[in-house]
């Protein structure tokens, strides 16, 4: 059986709606996602997507892929939570922040754990795009 992957885009990942939901542990509301069918079909699939590599905390192995570069990413208020993906790599990547990379991994949709992003790629491998 061959290794198959689905190429996805940020446009597909934007197929999500958000509503505020109160989380008692933080005594604060968070944006709770409802994934639309175009996204739900990708759950647990191996996907590839291209974006900007954000090296948030390399010591803790916290890496993100963003639709936009660091200066205009989700954390700077330039996009919503659907514009970033949390990544767990097989081996520590050596990409600089804001490098354009193509990442392949298994997609998880996260609606409930506020400690993690809505989109998570596990078992990631990345390739620098020049």
Summarize the model shown.
The chain has helices at 10-13, 37-40; strands at residues 6-7, 16-23, 28-35, 46-57, 62-66, 84-89, 100-109, 119-128. It is mainly beta and 130 residues long. The strands form 2 sheets. It has a 5-stranded mixed barrel. A two-stranded antiparallel sheet has the order 2-3.
Question: What this model shows, in words?
Answer:
The chain is mainly β and 130 residues long. The chain has a single domain, classed as Beta Barrel (OB fold (Dihydrolipoamide Acetyltransferase, E2P)). The protein is 6% helix and 47% strand. The strands form two sheets. A five-stranded mixed beta barrel has the order 4-5-6-8-7. Strands 2-3 form a two-stranded antiparallel ribbon. The mean pLDDT is 87.
């Amino acid at each position: 059986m061959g290794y198959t992957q689905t190429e996805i885009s940020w446009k597909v990942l934007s197929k999500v709606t958000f509503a505020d939901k109160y989380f008692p542990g933080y005594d604060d509301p968070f944006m709770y996602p409802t994934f639309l069918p175009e996204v739900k079909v990708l759950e647990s699939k191996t996907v590839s997507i291209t974006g900007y590599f954000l090296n948030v905390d390399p010591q803790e192995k916290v890496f993100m892929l963003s639709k936009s570069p660091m200066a205009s990413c989700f954390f700077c208020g330039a996009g919503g939570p659907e514009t970033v993906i949390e990544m767990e790599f097989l081996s520590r990547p050596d990409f600089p922040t804001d490098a354009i990379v193509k990442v392949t991994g298994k997609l998880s949709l996260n609606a409930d754990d506020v400690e993690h992003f809505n989109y998570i790629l596990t078992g990631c491998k990345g390739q620098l795009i020049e």
